[in-house]
Amino acid sequence: MTDESCIFCKIISGEIPSAKVYENEHVYAFLDISQVTKGHTLIIPKSHEKDVFELNEETAAELFKAVPAVATAINDTFQPEGLNVLNNNKEPAGQSVFHYHLHLIPRYGAQDGFKAIWEEHSSDYDTETLQKMAQDIASAIN
């Protein structure tokens, strides 16, 4: 399934050019035009699935099978100090293209311009609250 208005579907079809890194029958990987850091790559399913909430298991399996190969190729090519695998789902979480995609962002040190800020809130949750939250999530898994 494709969405004719989706920029990533247009990239997959060749209607919009891209700097392709990898492709198989299920997955397409290409350099992100923003290049947050050198080698910043997107991995997308060829099927149009909006976000992780719509991603089917087969698509996820095929997508994540490609991640180690592409990540290793980035690592071997650019020798970054590390690599972030990032995914945003829905607009409030920063998703701007509504076709599921993973960002592979090589990290070259504090000066590379990418900042992921994690605020620590462990003091807001006691053991009992954490256990209740875990049970609630677990019971919602189909």
UniProtKB/TrEMBL annotation:
Entries under Gene3D superfamilies matching the protein: HIT-like (3.30.428.10)
A Pfam family annotated for this chain is HIT
Question: Which organism was this protein described from?
Answer: Alkalicoccus luteus
Query: HIT domain: which residues?
Result: 7-114
SUPFAM superfamilies, per database record: HIT-like (SSF54197)
Q: Name one GO molecular function term.
A: catalytic activity
Motif Histidine triad motif — list its residue ranges.
99-103
Entry-linked CDD domains: HINT_subgroup
**Annotated catalytic residues:** 101 (tele-amp-histidine intermediate)
**By what name is this protein known?**
HIT family protein
Q: Which domain of life is it from?
A: Bacteria
GO BP annotations, alphabetical order: nucleotide metabolic process
